[in-house]
Amino acid sequence: MREAFKEALSRFAAGVTVVSARLGQEERGMTATAFMSLSLEPPLVALGIHEKAKLWPVLEAARAFSVSLLREGQEAVSQHFAGRPQEGVALEEGRVPGALAVLRCRLEAVYPGGDHRLVVGRVERVELGEPGLPLVYFGRGYRRVVWPS
Ligand SMILES: Cc1cc2nc3c(=O)[nH]c(=O)nc-3n(C[C@H](O)[C@H](O)[C@H](O)COP(=O)(O)OP(=O)(O)OC[C@H]3O[C@@H](n4cnc5c(N)ncnc54)[C@H](O)[C@@H]3O)c2cc1C
């Protein structure tokens, strides 16, 4: 069951995000694909965050977080914030520079979700970057969207 579950979910294509939060001098970022748009009125998004993620206590205490939607070519950024440090990757102004878009959220609600927490954020501000194509995770690897001509 466990292997079939993982295999099935590897067949689900997801955009890649970096979730970030700051509390005083401590700022943390984490790569996440368990992200979804939840509601338009009010504007809500939802995220699955592992209960042991170092991001979690910072986000919970800060009651606020940002979600940077990664663009194609930002594989190194995703790897960095997934625990495989890369040269020259850093947050700027609490978000990933060059992201397709950034959602600035207030923590709205948290629900149990097995070994993860289902985190709901109310979007208070949207920052749009240059339009472009997303970084996609599918079949245990990074993929690119091919835009039909
Ligand atoms: C494609 C993909 C999708 C994933 N989706 C999810 C998901 O939806 N939910 C989930 O819970 N996990 C997900 N993960 C796993 C998650 O990204 C890793 O387990 C991650 O390492 C957990 O981060 P952490 O908060 O525990 O802290 P760490 O592992 O310590 O932090 C992650 C990395 O970010 C760096 N970092 C942290 N803060 C900063 C900062 N302020 N400036 C510069 N670098 C910093 C750290 O040095 C470290 O290399 C995913 C991983 C991948 C590859």
Q: Can you offer a commentary on this structure?
A:
By secondary structure, the chain is an alpha+beta fold. The protein has one domain (15-138): Electron Transport, Fmn-binding Protein, Chain A (Pnp Oxidase, Chain A, Roll), CATH 2.30.110. The chain has 3 helices and 10 strands, in the order αβββββαβαββββ. The protein has helices at 2-10, 55-62, 75-80, and strands at 14-15, 17-23, 26-32, 35-39, 44-50, 64-69, 101-113, 116-128, 135-138, 141-144. The strands form 2 sheets. It has a 7-stranded antiparallel beta sheet with strand order 3-2-6-7-8-5-4. Strands 1-9-10 form a 3-stranded antiparallel beta sheet, with no helix packed on it. It is globular and about 40 Å long. Flavin-adenine dinucleotide is lined by residues 16, 27-34, 48-50, 53-55, 78, 80-83, 85, 90-91, 116, 137.
Q: What tags apply to this protein structure?
A:
alpha+beta; Pnp Oxidase, Chain A; seven-stranded antiparallel beta sheet; 10 strands
Brief account:
By secondary structure, the chain is α+β, with helices and mostly antiparallel strands.
Detail the topology: elements first, then pairings.
Layout lengths: L1 H9 L3 E2 L1 E7 L2 E7 L2 E5 L4 E7 L4 H8 L1 E6 L5 H6 L20 E13 L2 E13 L6 E4 L2 E4 L5
Antiparallel strand pairs: 1-9, 2-3, 2-6, 4-5, 5-8, 6-7, 7-8, 9-10
The structure holds flavin-adenine dinucleotide.
Flavin-adenine dinucleotide binds next to strand 3, strand 5 and helix 3.
Protein name: Flavin reductase
Organism: Thermus tengchongensis
Keywords: Oxidoreductase
